[in-house]
Amino acid sequence: MAINISRSALPEDGELWKIAAACFQCGRCTGGCPVVFAARETPRQVIRLLQLGVWEKALASPTIWVCAGCHFCTVECPRGVDLQGLMVRLKQLALRQGKHKKEAAFYQAFLMGIKRNGRIFEPGLLLVYARRAGVNVLKPQVKVGMQMLRRGQVTLRPSLVEDRMKLRALLETLTRGGREG
To answer: pLDDT tens digits for 30-53?
Structure first.
């Protein structure tokens, strides 16, 4: 059965169409995905949604936020489809359209923490996420947080990596979907 992939079916980003059109649904991306157990749709299913022109469903999928960005799917693809880059672009599109407010708030808080410190500072991540998402995640976590503090599992100050500028440049490239410049 032939599938008619329409460029007009995909919003704004013509790159999404090119990525989706190249995939022939072999499933190698999904076979080794380390986070597929936590995804509602598999990576292959997300790209299939784009091929079928139902990009709203692809944007509504929590799978785009679960993606670990490990590049396994991209490396394994016999067609060279940059599925990890596609996931980044779908996140960016969802952010622009105001979808997945809580997931987007966590994603942005996580990236902000990495850019600032070079690694995750859990108390800071929780504070920024709670403020951006408008959720009360702090009160239920206070007891656990105090226990972790006493055990030395978390600190009140973030530890910093040595060369944060190189890391920031790398993160800027990644947040542009792996495109240089």
So the answer is: 998 999 999 999 999 999 999 998
Residue 39 near residue 62, CB atoms below 8 Å = yes
CA distances from 150 to 45, 121, 142, 145, 146 (A): 44, 16, 12, 9, 6
pTM comes to 0.69
CA distance 168 to 124: 18
What are the helix (H) ranges across the chain?
14-22, 28-31, 43-51, 55-60, 63-66, 72-76, 83-97, 101-117, 122-133, 138-151, 164-175
Domains and CATH numbers, the chain: 7-97 (1.10.1060.10), 101-175 (no CATH)
Q: In whole angstroms, what is the distance from residue 93 CA to residue 86 CA?
A: 10
Which of these, 85, 89, 65, 57, lies nearest to 73 by C-alpha position? 85
